[in-house]
Amino acid sequence: MKTKINAKTNQMQGDSLKMKLLWLILLFGGFSANAQTWSLQQCIDTALVYNKNLQLGRNSIAMGEQRELEAKAGLIPKIMISADYKYFIDLPYQLMPMSTFSPTAPEGEFKEIQFGVPHNINASLQLGMPLYNPQVYGAIQSTKIASEIYELQYKKTEEQVFFEIANLYYNANILWHQQAFIDSNLVNTSRLLKNLQLLYEAEMLKQSDVTKVELQKAQLLTRRDWVANNLDQVLNALKLAMGVSLTVNIEVDHEILYESGQNYLTHQTVELQLANAQSRFIASELRTLKNSRLPSVSLMGSYSQAGFGYDKKPNDFLKFFPVSFTGLQLSYPLFNGTVTRRKIVQKNIEVQNSNLQIALIEEQNSMLISNAGRRKTVTEQTIINTSRQINIATTVYGQQLLQQKEGTASLTEVLLAHNAVQEAQQDYLSAVIEYLKADLELKKLTGNISLQN
Helix, strand, or coil here: 174? Predict the structure, then answer.
């Protein structure tokens, strides 16, 4: 199963989610008091629609797309309209040289004069457009990489949800089989107890022999209750991971399916892809910091109307006069106290740490793949061995029962043979679940695990 999360495929994903949502509505609409059998894929499809963590991840992707569009909007021309009205209760003063009024006035003497009219109105339309701005281009590149990071984080969440649901599903499956084994053992123990009680009534056995089997039956009943309680807890955890109500009555498929000897091609894991994307994001921030030393050029223009009014008779008036201009604006940072330099040094250290993190992830992943592969091989052989042990132990138990009836085998030998059957069954189930978990982990480590087919 492989999932491909990309902003360009959101429409296809939306259609897929709608189809799954329709299927889930039909499924939930058919629920009754009886438990419904769910396959692993049905549990995963349900989680894809209802799991809260995945919903948060999809919202993060949408937010990242909007941030990318916001950064690109920095290249779009900006238009601003502004207007203001001022009524001067006291007109502003200005000092004028006395020589302006009298040529014979001495140099250095001034006369205060009030200029203007009380009513001032100004309305302007301003245009600004960046022609070259390294900060804007850097922000666009960074937000584009950030969108990729959001998508990879969503994909990582998908893998975590798949891993969690698969583990819970396998655990529920194994617990159900444990219950089935216990029920089978209870049937055999009850049959044995009934025979022993008949023999005791015929005074052919001691009470202690009957008590031993009664104790074994009580232990089986206690273990059955314990397994049933664990199964309920695992199913509740599975419902929570799926995002459905705990009141929904579900049951897992009882058939244990696994493929032996299956190998996986190693692909780049989501964790490594995420580390590489984060490294590119830091490198983009570093380039933006370095480019912030470059000049920026903007086109600017303005058109405004200035209005002046006087409200005293007989010279009352309101007149408007246009003011307009266009031009280029150049900004070049000369010195900002070495702040940019210090930020560049810090970002270079972050780049080094990012590269070390990538190398560490690759080394750890190689080690974990090797360990998971060995564990899978060992548990696969254990399944074969324990399966044989169940057959042998069951045969021995049947022989011991027959010999006990004939009086050639003691009750202790029968109980020991019965315990051997239970141990072989438990070892088999433990081996199966360990194999499934090792296989699941190997899929994850080799980049072959995903939520969708």
Answer: helix
